[in-house]
Amino acid sequence: MNNRTFAMIKPDAVRNGYMGKILDRIIEADFKILGAKLIRMTKAQAEGFYAIHRERPFFQELTTFMSSGKAMVLALEKENAVSAWRDTIGATNPAEAVDGTIRKDFATSLGENAVHGADSDENAAIEIGFFFTNSELISNE
Ligand code: CMP
Fold first, then answer.
1. What pLDDT does 1 receive?
2. Which residues contact 56 (CB under 8 A, 6 or more apart)?
3. Are strands 115-117 and 71-77 parallel, antiparallel or unpaired?
4. 32 CA distance to ligand 1 middle (Å)
5. Best substitution site from 113, 116, 119, 130 to test ligand 1's pocket, by max atoms within 8 Å of Cβ?
6. What are the structural domains of the chain?
7. What is the pTM of this model?
8. Rounded to 10 degrees, what is the CA torsion of 16, 116, 7, 119?
9. DSSP bridge pairs for 74
10. pLDDT bracket for residue 7 (50, 70, 90)
């Protein structure tokens, strides 16, 4: 079990003014924030980050959207962090997200779904490494 996960507040949520509210949810759910950065991905960076989806029909739409504005990337720590964060954000499609989840409350569509969460320990480590160096991850308060 890995205690770290990777999270992103996507451009739709930043544009809609939900960055602070989503950070509140992260803190209320008892995640420790090891690292946080405001970024704006280039199209090439978005294509690299989502390379696993490059054969999918929505790849162009996804990477254009993800490079369309500011996003916040976060490295989070909590017991069983990957599944804890996925529970906090809810289903990928906000129409299927249960009450009280971030996507239920702040997402608008499957494509613009407010937040990202790593889907496995292995991908969490890869995704954290995509945006953070080890020295940018602060585990002591
Ligand atoms: P995320 O958890 O960031 O991982 C991949 C993303 O692709 C996913 O959230 C969705 O936002 C997006 N996605 C998945 N399916 C579709 C789809 N059918 N059309 C557009 N975007 C999609």
1. 53
2. 62
3. unpaired
4. 26
5. 113
6. 2-136 (3.30.70.141)
7. 0.97
8. 170
9. 7, 36
10. very high
Indicate if 116 belongs to the active site. yes
DSSP 98: P
Q: Which ligand 1 atom is nearest residue 8's CA? A: 3
For the cut 70, the answer to whether the pLDDT of residue 76 exceeds it is yes
How many whole angstroms from its chain centre is CA 131?
12
- Residue with more model confidence, 139 or 97: 97
Other C-beta atoms within 10 Å of 11: how many? 20
> What's the 24 CA to ligand 1 centre distance in angstroms?
24
- With a pLDDT cut of 70, the percent of the chain lying above it is 98
Give pLDDT tens digits for 12-56: 999 999 999 999 999 999 999 999 999 999 999 999 999 999 999
